[in-house]
Design goal:
2-enoyl-CoA Hydratase, Chain A, domain 1, single chain, 20 strands, alpha/beta, globular, about 35% helix, about 425 residues, six-stranded parallel beta sheet, Rossmann fold
């Protein structure tokens, strides 16, 4: 029997697997990279969507303080080329680098390390501008902007004369798409707002899923907060499968983001005609698969390809589980997700990071823990059952064990429908509409 090779995004490299000849590879169409990244960004800033050009806005405002937000290390955003071009346009309007603060929109993620800042920005930008991490649980760094509902936001951002939000547009497993308003909420808001944004009712809504904006409560809450807080100019990127710049959508917070979402949907969608018996899913590679917390995104975005008897082989290089709160949650409920669901629906309170495990339970409710296989060398095998997954034990490294799992599955199930998703959650699975 012949084989079909696939290379899944895994850590900083690829995980090679040989699949049966008839297996499907689910991936969006080829995405062309721009020939001149710096020039493309400048053009977007000068010819924005639904807004005056950035230079004109800065010339009119003559800001004494500018905040440029950016995503943290979990997003492969081309920050250096975006922010360098933004500073050039601000400089042409008479705004010096010394007036500019780069604010890392961490949301509830941990602060960035010095090495991560160098990776995200490069040494030159670190010397040109002050860089600050948002801290959602530090009240001294926040300011109240709304009482009904109560919303607090990063003080540096709220008090800036010119607010510029950057980010990446990609499919997002609960908010429809990343980018746009997410750079503010949850990126720059307080813990309680994040908890409301991720409440169990919001996460339980079937419209809180990838590719959906209309009626998505996660999107609507974030957009409402972002409009309260304000954004003078949006700069969002889209990237190729190889993480090169594909397009820039700049200008009005809503109009530019919606234009970008339309294009990203075209680039990242793959059709699933009917579910598969085995789906081999990437967690997205570095930096997304650094933690099990982020790995869950890949599990959830595979759902359109799964029926109730499917097996999902989740391939992730993660070596850490997530925050202390998330780790403790899994230690308590990871072997009994239904007890977890009973717990969160019995109270209006939202514990930090409970939303991620709630999203994982969508998969557990569909296929069960025993069919959620986990190919990983970073977390000790003995601890993996606490993650609500089925470890793949045995000799050899993760590539050997994953290949053996695929081979044994194919041998036990001749004629099984098998698919692999090499880009993981960066690919959006679409089920054709019924005629």
């Amino acid at each position: 029997m012949g084989t079909r090779a696939v290379d899944l995004r895994f850590g900083r490299g690829r995980l090679h697997l040989d699949l049966p000849t008839g297996a499907d590879i689910l991936i969006g169409p080829e995405i062309p990279a721009v020939a001149d990244p710096a020039g493309t960004v400048i053009a977007a800033l000068q010819q924005p969507i639904g807004s005056a050009p950035l230079r004109a806005i800065a010339t009119r405002k003559q800001p004494r303080s500018v905040v440029i937000t950016m995503s943290d290390i979990t997003r492969p955003v081309p920050n250096e080329v975006l922010i360098t071009a933004i500073l050039a346009e601000l400089g042409a309007a008479g705004v010096p680098d010394s007036a500019c603060t780069i604010l890392v929109a961490t949301g509830m993620h941990r602060p960035s390390t010095a090495d991560e800042r160098r990776t995200m920005l490069g040494d030159e930008l670190l010397q040109r501008c002050r860089v600050v991490d948002h801290e959602a649980d530090d009240p001294d760094t926040l300011v109240r902007v709304s009482d009904d509902p109560p919303v607090s936001v990063n003080r540096i951002y709220a008090e800036a004369d010119l607010k510029i939000v950057t980010g990446l547009i990609e499919p997002h497993f609960m908010a429809g798409y990343s980018g746009g308003r997410k750079g503010i909420c949850p990126g720059l808001v307080d813990l309680h707002t994040v908890q409301r944004f991720h409440g169990h009712r919001t996460m339980g809504d079937p419209r809180a899923t990838e590719g959906t904006l209309i009626g998505n409560p996660c999107h609507e809450i974030a957009l409402r907060v972002a409009r309260q807080v304000g954004c003078d100019f949006l700069v969002n990127a889209a990237i190729t499968h190889d993480r090169q710049l594909a397009a820039v959508f700049a200008g009005d917070l809503l109009a530019a983001h919606e234009r970008g979402c339309e294009r990203v949907a075209e680039w990242t969608s793959a059709t699933v005609a009917e579910p598969y018996d085995l789906v081999i899913q990437s967690a997205g590679g570095y930096p997304l698969d650094e933690s099990f917390y982020q790995t869950i995104k890949g599990m959830v975005t595979a759902l359109p390809a799964l029926h109730e008897r499917s097996t999902l082989l989740m391939c992730s290089a993660c070596s850490e589980v997530g925050s202390p709160e998330f780790s403790a949650l899994l230690q308590r409920f990871g072997r009994d997700h239904r007890a977890f669901l009973r717990e969160i629906t019995s109270t209006a309170a939202t514990a930090k990071d409970q939303w991620q495990y709630q999203m994982q339970t969508r998969v557990l409710e569909r296929i069960g823990v025993e069919r959620l296989a986990f190919a990983n060398d970073g977390v000790p095998i003995a601890e993996q059952p606490d993650l609500a997954v089925a470890p793949i034990p045995g000799p050899g490294d993760v590539a050997i064990r994953a290949q053996r799992f695929v081979d044994e599955f194919a041998a036990r199930h001749p004629g099984a429908r098998i698919a692999a998703i090499p880009e993981g959650p960066y690919t959006m699975l679409r089920i054709p509409a019924s005629p």
